[in-house]
Specification:
- By secondary structure, the chain is mostly helical.
- The chain has two helices and four strands.
- The protein has a two-stranded antiparallel sheet with strand order 1-2.
- The protein is flat and about 110 Å long.
- The N and C termini lie far apart (105 Å).
Length: 126
């Protein structure tokens, strides 16, 4: 016995063992794993191709979106320039500036509060 099979966790004798990627397998277990790994690799290759196609489509759509936004901005700017009238508005007449007077503020007198001392407390107790 060399070790346990990576798939079924049963002991594997040296005569029957298949050793790959630092893992010990029975010959039957290795064949089943090999088939499943091949199918996974094929799926991953297909997924990569689909991913690349989708990324290319996404890039194209982003470019189209930017072009449409630019076009809409151009149309809006053309409409706004057509609506503006070319006539000049009369200038506003300048009148006298009114001076604002500042109100005189009086300073508030601070009221002093009497502090409580020990002697005043003693007088109250009597």
């Amino acid at each position: 016995m060399v070790g346990n099979c990576h798939v079924c966790q049963k002991p594997v004798p040296r005569s029957n063992m298949t050793y790959t990627n630092e893992k010990v397998f029975h010959p039957n277990c290795y064949e089943s794993v090999k088939v499943s790994m091949e199918s996974i690799q094929q799926d991953s290759i297909e997924n990569e191709k689909l991913k690349q196609e989708l990324q290319q489509e996404l890039r194209g759509l982003k470019v189209q979106l930017a072009k449409l936004k630019n076009l809409s901005v151009r149309k809006k700017s053309k409409k706004s320039t057509k609506k503006k009238s070319t006539k000049r508005k009369p200038a506003k007449k300048k009148g006298k500036k009114s001076t604002k007077r500042r109100k005189a503020t009086t300073k508030r007198k601070r009221t002093t509060t009497k502090r409580k001392t020990r002697s005043s407390r003693a007088k109250r107790r009597r």
